[in-house]
Amino acid sequence: MNEKKSVSVNKTELSIVFLILSALSIVFFSASIFQFPSHLHAWTQSDRYALAIGYVDNGMALFLPSTNNLHPKYPPAKPLNNPKGITKADLPVVEYISAAVMKITGKNHPFIFRITTLLIGLAGLMFLFALFRKSGGSFILSLLTVLFAFFAPAFTYYLNGFIPSIPALSFALAAIFFYTSYLQNNRFSNFAISVGLFCLAALIRPPFIMPLIAVIMVQIFFGFRKGKNLKNEIIAATSGLFVFGVFQIYNFWLGQNFGSLFISNLMPAGNIAEFIDLTALSWNKWKFEYFSEVHYALMITAGLLLFLFRKKLKDKVFGRLALIATLTLLASFVYLFAMALQFPNHDYYFLDSFFLPLILLTGTGFALPASDSILRKIILTLVTIVAGILMFNASRAVQKARYTTHSWDRTEMIRQLFEGSSDLLAENQIPLDAKILVLDAYTSNVPLLLLNRKGYTVINTDSTELAEGLKSIFDYIAIPNRTLASDVIRNYPSLSQWLVPVANNGKIGLFSLDKSAAEKPFIELLMPDKLHLVYAEQDSTMSCLKPDDAFLPLIDTTFSFQNNSDFSILFESFATSEQAINGLHFVLDITSEDGSRHYDSFPLSPFFEGNKSVAKMEVFLNIPSINQVDTKLKCYIWNPGKNEICFNKNRLYFTKYDSHK
Fold first, then answer.
1. Residues of the domain holding 306
2. Whether 369 and 480 share a structural domain
3. pTM value?
């Protein structure tokens, strides 16, 4: 009497669920599905995208993953004579599938990767629905479980992204479905498929070995009493664990011989106190991005249902499902401790661990109560609609915030600056096999992907890192115009002499290196097609800011822009201060006739690093494409840090780029 009868999942119900998920996907992802990896965790996402491009370039060698970056973050045991970008990586299944489609279509567009992840993710949600529907749950509450998962903000964000957590989670959900099917029909082939899918999920993201181990433990526990297939189950499970172990050994060999671009070691808390602090930090930062308030209310409701209908957990399927979820949840806390240093900054680690057991426990709670009366069906339908709308709105708000570009988002800034850079190289006949050294790349693969070349990246532009980068064997150097003076030449002054300009599109400069060349003025390195002086002070003029002065105006004028040219603004000045500088910015403020506004600020304090009292400041800011007359343009020095400082020889130029050569 405690067992719920299994039901067949008809095609009509599956079609309804698929149509709902497809419609939601259009609403959530129509704006992002074609985007290059950007915004939150764009660094890691671009590295995964680079793996797909690597397969396209290396002849689809599955077990030799590579990226555009030739210098691994974690170097091999011995230096490489001929680096090819090969890297240790968890099995890149989605990257490989995406690369196969790219190879067939001849297009390396990010859309292919995103849609592959999305389709696998939706398939996983379909298995989640079928799992609880087939086990006896009602249609509407099985659908609510699916919506619960879809609308979890972190899940939604990565559902059409590049992080392998979504595919691994989807394969794990499929594995659970086949496992419960095995419990219902005792067909051993279902158990074998389940183990295979669990193994695949763990090869993609190793934490998914936890639910497989939980399944093995549960089957052994029950199998000793009345399991007829225990021997075969152990053989199948051992085979899966063996495959997982062999791959880990091979992956270790890859890291030893070629290095790794990805984290390959545990990062635990040092002690219990630190673990508690890191866990609290992670929770405070991500709690409403893991789930919304409605999600937490539904989880509490599911927990109450599990308690109220606990007798129904004697059911073979629900009982073992709840036990497996509980064991996996406990194992997730061990994983949390083992990777405690990563959780505060990586929300997708939650998807690799806690998400699956929480979804299973919530879905099990929803599946336990009967819903056969018309009144109950009406109430549950209303609850699902209201909860769905609230979760929809909460997730949409998070997605909007995550796709908002902020001034501190250096990854997005680099993406925007290097966008179109492959055309610059093509116009200047730079060979496809030319190796590029990118200075101030901020990420390991974003600029190289957009340059469509392999090469090296210097992420931190201190003098040591720059010197190390310059030891690489490269053909050209690429540097963003924006940070050429402040982050590169300031830290390595010799480059103002060694750099030989080759091409510039107004956003980045391409250079060769000649240590015998003469020193060049900054404007020569920028290579503008036209240079227009719009503001200049006499050399004898001194403009000063006192601590109580918030602003130092430079220009306030109108200007006519045409979007067929690339305009930028260049600010030059000598500044003197007897005190440490902090909180000082050059600001560009543009207001168009239609009311749209572009605001950009550049910190000036780096020019004073090293206890300098006198600094030459050179700031280059891009102006967005505008096609309007009488555009209001302001430039000023903003002093929120209440500095006392004087400026001399202030100059403002408009630079214009047409030829890109």
1. 11-174+244-402
2. no
3. 0.93
